């Protein structure tokens, strides 16, 4: 008390010290008001360290050559992460959408990559190319060439220069006009979005119909001279070799112990016939275009699931490239019931394969239609391989059934493939896409998948995953990439319903029922739209990984969360935060409703959602829907099998050109590192590699 | 009151001496009041309790995990209620106790002016307010500064608009806001004739000031007042002025750099007027309250006849 005795001798000095402190604090406070924090100008960072939105920098077109997309990095006022955009257009399109400002605040500083000293030009394909980019400069100090002949894979592109004269030189050579930042910023650009993918899904379905019909028609057209196994030659192989071009090889009922090689266009028409290999290598090998294989059962496939030499051959060189080579050489060269190499126009119809390796293997442009294929794989996935493996081949699979084995369908660089109306039971992954974009995975049924029903790895774009029914699996849908459309899926009794790993994507009209976790928000910076999904009966409706607050709604349209309308408010009037401890248990803890009505909880509810970019690790739905969007599917998801739920997504208004939730914001993307296992935490070198990559050459993809 | 006795006879001194004399009077009253505050252990508990409340709010709100602006957002609503409350706790008996015990009458026998007495009391209570309120808030700020970090550092991060300066602004705004309520509380303590009365009047003033102004604005908007008048009307109450300034200078910086949330000059002026007004009412009550009472008593007597 001595020092604080107001009547003591030293009190004067204490008082003086306090006075000085107060004055100093006052001056500091005055200084705080005088300084303007909104004029801070952080320096540009290495682009690889930004959270990338917009067009992926890893499209094949860009990876292949010297083509470039001018990159932008943006420091938003509320967001702690530096955001990178591929293409000024992507940035402009995303800022033009009000949602960006709502989520991230306004751009404090924008840096653009310039090409003054990089000898910029235009490739033969019209893409912008440059040896290198020279410098990051503040956007308002750069000069921009607009309307030149240079394009990006996504369309029109604006080329920035730090010196106006260099811009003028470029414009003189390649057309266009030189503009300042304000003018470039105010242009509007037509950028593809996930909504585009959604609108294309029915067309892809129709295209698959057409491919099936065409394959049938062309097979019928080709059906020339008929030769019969046993009558014209003793074995199938010999009969095929002897058959005239476009002939039909009829295989009568019975078991044929042999392997078959098809080197010309024929139709092999089995009639309850079984082809039994010798347990070494593939059983039927097709090396000619326009071959039809139908009505066969194949067994006696070798046990080699992939080429053991591949890992050695691919060693050395760039890690990612090496891995890709490894997969292509390794996976593409294992044993299969039917193996097609450079065989476009293949039709596999009504075929059963019993195998401990692959069922049907397609590579080198073996665009194929596969209908009514049944593959019975190994009981333990570690012992078997893929039901269908397609590499650099566009595959159309319809009405298939894939039981056991590693992956039901594994596609690698098989853009534009369609997998539909098929059943997958007890695989590791039901359908597994690598480097495969613009695919349609629709109306399939997945059961008991060890790792997941549908998984899309690496960074493809434009995949549509629609109308699937995944149950009793580790995960329903884990799709990484960009601009994906994940809609109308039913996910029940899984450990995880779906993850929002794909950036700039649209997740709508999915039903997540009785999963351990309904949905998992994985990307660090939110860029996707999650709306009109139904979450019912999940242990936890949703979980969020590291990153800024996700707002799961589209305007005043949210998702349906069972339990969100418990309490003393109008249904839908109160924001729901599935990641908050109280909200998360509203649907199974009655008492949680009482806690939620406490003034403290109400107050905190009000605050959440303000400055979202600066908050972290959670999800909020500002306007939860009081009723499920698809009550019939929610009810059906709880009915016992066998009753796969396939909504009529092709006729529902949402997909018939209705643009109610279209969005230019769908151009926004985030890095989804490690997307499919839902953690986003990369460590060191793992950063930009595809998710599935080798740890050991012997077992290249057992990451879990 | 030996210290007061030492001031000599200010009445007969002139010019600079008179000013010095008045300052000494204020200093003496200030010192005495500070002694009262320091001997009230409850104030220490109040500061600790406030720190606990604020810590709880930011911990549950989660804003403190990422930066200063989210922290201020989390704290704003609580602050609007808690700071006036604490100001009233500190101030509601400031002038009442001396009046009740008769000490004021004794003090008035010395050459101590009412204004000097009130200013001394208010300054001491103000310092107490700074210690009890601003220190916990500053502690929260330091904690945020020490701990706030992005979720993940695998990407390049930056602080965006967020900055300790913004929190310092917030602390700076707490002072005039609290001062306005402290001064109001002092006025209540002067007007009230008993402790119970002071509590009752204090709660009434608190509720009216914290809620009333905003309700009035809502009401007037509902009845057709032009929305463009809001920036001018808002700062009329201390809460409106404070909230407006926090939006203008702290929170709004994150989403609307151009501001326009409140008429800044008017808001600052309003807080100043409330503060000075409270002091003036206190002084006037102490100086003329007795005469008023006589008048009132007389009026009552007449009506009773």
Task: Describe the overall structure.
The complex is a heterodimer of chains A (704) and B (305). Chain A is α/β, with parallel strands linked by helices and 704 residues long. Chain A folds into 3 domains: 145 residues, no CATH class; 192 residues, Pectate Lyase C-like (3 Solenoid), CATH 2.160.20; 233 residues. Chain A is 20% helix and 28% strand. Chain A has a 22-stranded parallel β-sheet that branches. In chain A, strands 16-18-20-22-24-27-30-33-36-39-42-45 form a 12-stranded parallel β-sheet. The longest helix of chain A is centred in the first third of the chain and has 29 residues. The radius of gyration of chain A is 30 Å and the shape is globular. Chain A starts with 10 loop residues before the first helix and ends in a 67-residue tail after the last helix. The C terminus of chain A is likely disordered. With 305 residues, chain B is mainly alpha-helical. Chain B has one domain. Chain B has 12 helices and no strands. In chain B, helix 2 crosses helix 7 and helix 8 crosses helix 9. The two termini of chain B are 45 Å apart. The N terminus of chain B is likely disordered. Chains A and B meet through helix 1 and helix 13 of A and helix 2, helix 4 and helix 8 of B. Chain A: It holds the Pfam family NosL. Chain A: Keywords: Repeat.
Pair with the biggest interface = A-B, 61 and 46 residues
Strand content of chain A: 25-35%
The shape of chain A is globular
Count of discrete alpha- or pi-helical segments spanning 4 or more residues of chain B = 12
Net shape of chain B: globular
When the domains of chain A are counted, the total is: 3
Report the span from N to C terminus of chain A. Answer: 64 Å
Range of helix content of chain A: 10-25%
Could you estimate the helical fraction of the residues of chain B in percent? over 70%
Estimate the mean pLDDT confidence of chain B: 82
């Amino acid at each position: 008390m001595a020092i604080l005795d107001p009547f003591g001798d030293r009190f004067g000095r204490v008082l003086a010290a306090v006075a000085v402190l107060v004055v100093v604090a006052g001056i500091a406070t005055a200084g705080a008001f005088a300084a303007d924090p909104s004029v801070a100008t952080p320096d540009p960072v290495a682009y690889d360290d930004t959270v990338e939105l917009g067009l992926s920098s890893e499209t094949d077109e860009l990876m292949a050559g010297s083509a470039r997309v001018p990159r932008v990095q943006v420091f938003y006022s509320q967001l702690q992460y530096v955001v990178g955009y591929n293409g000024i257009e992507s940035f402009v399109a995303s800022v033009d959408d009000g949602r960006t400002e709502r989520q991230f605040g306004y751009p404090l500083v924008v840096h653009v990559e310039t090409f003054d000293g990089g000898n910029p030009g235009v490739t033969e394909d019209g893409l912008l190319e440059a040896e290198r980019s020279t410098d990051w400069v503040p956007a308002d100090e750069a000069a921009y060439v607009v309307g030149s002949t240079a394009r990006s894979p996504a369309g029109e592109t604006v080329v920035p220069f730090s010196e106006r004269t260099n811009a003028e030189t470029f414009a003189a050579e390649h057309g266009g006009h030189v503009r300042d930042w304000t003018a470039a910023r105010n242009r509007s650009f037509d950028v593809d979005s996930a909504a585009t993918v959604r609108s294309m899904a029915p067309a892809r379905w129709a295209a698959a119909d057409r491919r099936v019909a065409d394959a049938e028609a062309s097979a019928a057209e080709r059906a020339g001279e008929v030769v019969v196994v046993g009558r014209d030659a003793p074995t199938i192989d010999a009969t095929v070799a002897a058959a005239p071009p476009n002939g039909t090889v009829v295989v009568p009922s019975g078991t044929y112990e042999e392997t078959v090689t098809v080197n010309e266009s024929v139709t092999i028409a089995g009639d309850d016939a079984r082809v039994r290999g010798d347990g070494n290598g593939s059983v039927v090998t097709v090396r000619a275009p326009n071959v039809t294989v139908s009505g066969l059962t194949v067994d006696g496939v070798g046990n080699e699931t992939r080429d053991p030499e591949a890992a050695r051959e691919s060693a050395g060189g760039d890690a990612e490239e090496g891995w890709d080579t490894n997969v292509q050489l390794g996976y593409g060269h294992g044993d299969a019931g039917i193996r097609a190499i450079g065989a476009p126009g293949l039709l596999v119809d009504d075929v059963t394969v019993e195998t401990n390796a692959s069922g049907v293997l397609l590579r080198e442009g073996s665009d194929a239609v596969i209908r009514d294929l049944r593959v019975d794989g190994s009981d333990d996935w570690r012992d078997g391989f893929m039901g269908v493996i397609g590499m650099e081949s566009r595959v159309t699979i319809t009405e298939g059934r894939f039981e056991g084995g590693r992956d039901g369908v594994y596609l690698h660089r098989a853009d534009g493939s369609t997998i539909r109306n098929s059943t997958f039971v007890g695989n590791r992954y039901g359908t597994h896409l690598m480097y495969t974009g613009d695919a349609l995975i629709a109306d399939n049924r997945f059961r008991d998948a060890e790792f997941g029903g549908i998984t899309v790895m690496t960074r493809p774009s434009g995949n549509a995953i629609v109308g699937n029914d995944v149950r009793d699996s580790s995960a329903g849908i884990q799709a990484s990439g960009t601009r994906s459309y994940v809609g109308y899926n039913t996910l029940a009794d899984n450990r995880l319903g779906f993850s929002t790993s794909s950036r700039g994507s649209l997740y709508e009209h999915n039903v997540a029922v009785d999963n351990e976790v309904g949905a998992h928000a994985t990307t660090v910076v939110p860029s996707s739209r999650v709306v009109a999904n139904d979450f019912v009966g999940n242990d936890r409706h949703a979980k969020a990984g590291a990153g800024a607050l996700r707002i799961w709604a589209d305007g005043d349209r949210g998702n349906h969360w069972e339990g969100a309308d418990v309490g003393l408010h109008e249904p839908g009037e109160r924001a729901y935060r599935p990641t908050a401890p109280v909200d998360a248990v509203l649907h199974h803890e009655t008492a949680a409703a009482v806690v939620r009505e406490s003034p403290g909880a109400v107050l905190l509810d009000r605050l959440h959602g303000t400055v979202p970019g600066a908050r972290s690790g959670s999800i909020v739905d500002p306007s939860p829907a009081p009723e499920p969007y698809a009550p019939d599917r929610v009810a059906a998801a709880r009915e016992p099998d066998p009753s796969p739920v396939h909504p009529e997504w092709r006729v529902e208004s949402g997909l018939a050109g209705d643009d109610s939730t279209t969005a230019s914001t769908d151009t926004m993307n985030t890095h989804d590192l490690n997307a499919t296992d839902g953690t986003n935490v990369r460590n060191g070198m793992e950063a930009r590699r595809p998710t599935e990559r080798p740890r050991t050459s012997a077992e290249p993809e057992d990451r879990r | 009151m030996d210290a007061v006795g030492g001031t000599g006879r200010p009445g007969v001194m002139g010019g600079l001496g008179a000013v010095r004399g008045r300052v000494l009077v204020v200093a003496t009253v200030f010192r005495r009041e500070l002694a009262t505050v320091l001997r009230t252990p409850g104030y220490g508990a109040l500061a600790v309790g406030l720190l606990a409340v604020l810590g709880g709010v930011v911990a549950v709100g989660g804003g403190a995990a990422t930066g200063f602006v989210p922290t201020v957002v989390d704290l704003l609503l609580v602050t609007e209620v808690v700071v006036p409350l604490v100001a009233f706790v500190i101030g509601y008996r400031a002038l009442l106790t001396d009046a009740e015990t008769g000490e004021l009458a004794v003090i008035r026998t010395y050459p101590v002016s009412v204004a000097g007495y009130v200013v001394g009391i208010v300054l001491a209570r103000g310092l107490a307010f700074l210690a009890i309120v601003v220190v916990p808030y500053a502690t929260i700020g330091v904690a945020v500064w020490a701990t706030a970090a992005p979720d993940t550092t695998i990407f390049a991060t930056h602080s965006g608009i967020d900055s300790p300066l913004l929190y310092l602004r917030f602390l700076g705004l707490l002072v005039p806001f609290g001062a306005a309520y402290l001064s109001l509380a002092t006025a209540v303590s002067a007007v009230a004739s008993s402790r119970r009365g002071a509590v009752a009047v204090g709660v009434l003033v608190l509720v009216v000031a914290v809620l009333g102004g905003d309700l009035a604005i809502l009401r007037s908007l509902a009845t057709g007042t032009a929305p463009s008048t809001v920036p001018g009307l808002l700062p009329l109450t201390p809460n409106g002025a404070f909230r407006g300034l926090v939006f203008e200078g702290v929170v709004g910086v994150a989403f609307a750099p151009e501001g326009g949330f409140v008429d800044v000059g008017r808001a600052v002026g309003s807080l100043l007027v409330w503060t000075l007004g409270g002091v003036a009412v206190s002084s006037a009550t102490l100086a003329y309250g007795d005469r008023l009472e006589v008048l009132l008593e007389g009026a009552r007597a007449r009506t009773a006849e």
